[in-house]
Amino acid sequence: MSAETQTTVEAAPREQAEARLRPIRWKFPITYAILALISLAVFALLAPAESQTQFRLATSTDFFTIPAITVPSAPTAWVLGLALAVLAALALLRAVQRRRLGVWHPIVFGALFVLAFLVWAGAGRGAVIPLVTVLTGALALSVPLIFGAMCGVVGERSGIINIAIEGQLLAGAFLAAVAASLFTSAYVGLIAAPFAGAAVGALLVWFSVKYHVNQIIVGVVLNVLVIGLTSFLYSTVLTQSPEIWNARQQLPALPIPILSQIPIIGPVMFQPDHPGVPDVCHRHPAADLRVQIPLGAAHALSG
């Protein structure tokens, strides 16, 4: 037996012993179990027995039209709830075995839970669930979270614990809105936004590096400062002359040819100005339900 083979054989029992000594992480299994219980106790039990839920998968700009899918609400909710219970049991088993779950598990669990919510929300209400609008809203709402996470990773790699990410995003959004309104150009706001975020980040680094102030404390203080400053300026300046400081400016829609016409994927990924359901609120008050369902699902998917 070579030295390399012997080292590998000796390392395997050591890794197994370390796995047995590792504490059990109950946070995710308990979370999965609670969500599965909610799906069974609320979405499945409270879904009307004879109702149906209809999902719309196509838009008017697609190459071809995918017909709407209609499913029985209660049986579908039960199937999805049981699938969530199985995934929760798998998470519990892996936790007891001190083994990690794959990346696929939270993705599949989250998708099934949101789908169960949509089935229950649209059951017997005569509302068509526009999946394209839900996915488009989820993608739009997840952009700040993705940028914030990337900002935190870059700061951590450079040795700075950046707690002021929320303040950076808020300062950038505020300056972008003001600059775009003042110069009547959305491109000016797009260019101005990074400068506000960079200024907040520079303050964090300045206090942390030059004066050795606790980075977490400085980050929290900067968040409170930006929240208070933007709230004060909004209530005293922007609301007094909204036509100058707070006029809406919108970037033009730039749909990518061919790609934007692929069903489902095209409107979500390659058609940034997809017409959403909230426009119907101005036409009929009863359409409010059709707005609340997609927006709630979009918030769940984006988070």
UniProtKB/TrEMBL annotation:
GO terms for cellular component: plasma membrane. Its main location: membrane. The keyword Iron does not apply. Pfam families: BPD_transp_2 (PF02653). One of its GO terms (molecular function) is transmembrane transporter activity. Keywords: Cell membrane, Membrane, Transmembrane, Transmembrane helix. The keyword Cell inner membrane does not apply. InterPro entries: ABC_transp_permease. The chain crosses the membrane at residues 30-49, 77-96, 103-121, 127-147, 159-180, 186-209, 216-234. It is a multi-pass membrane protein. It is found in: Cell membrane. This is ABC-type uncharacterized transport system permease subunit. It comes from Garicola koreensis.
